[in-house]
What we know:
By secondary structure, the protein is mainly alpha-helical. About 55% of the residues lie in helices and about 5% in strands. It is flat, with a radius of gyration of 27 Å.
Amino acid sequence: MGKDPAVLFFTSDFLIGTMLFTDEECGKYIRLLCQQHQIGHLPITHMLKMCGSLDSPVMTKFDIDKNGLYFNYRMDEEIGKRKEHAEKQRVRIQNYWDKKKKVEQPKVFHGTTTVVPLENENENENENENENENVLTLKNKRSSREKTFEIFWQAYPNKSDKKRCLALWQKIDFEKNPFPMILENLEALKLSWGWTKDGGQFIPMAKTWLNREGWHDTIKTEPPKKESEWLT
């Protein structure tokens, strides 16, 4: 059997995990992940050739195994899940053909040829697997939401009622409101709030800001020159 050409890649997790990377660092990181998938854990010489030095931020994404080789834990985990799924598929197909062969071989009872009927496939098996995959996808989605929420929570200056805020965060449609956009607008708004007459004293509570989708607020890009232009 040839090398598995694919592995699950969670784009949202990648964007979050590389938010502070430059485009060049993102390129190096994704190439190293692809190489790990194809050839396994990587030697230090390989890492240094790609990253330039041990101080590269890309190096922080990799652990060292007992043999001194570098690997990304999440990539190893996804490779393992892919192999496990492929093995289940192989066993299911093999079982199907084994049953089919039994049907094609007639049994003789007292001179009468009797064909053994094909046993019904367990229809619930595929349904259960799909259900398990849906549950896993939901868990991954929730985990990703919680990670992005913690980043937001650390960045927001006026915190309160974290549980309620997390519930509001879970309802955000990230397809229409990408997380990087929300965070970037928040940072710009924090600067705008600093230009209010009260110096940002009356920044909205986190739950209020989330409830009204405050990332759509108008962002003031430079300090006012006249008192009449100050934000209130």
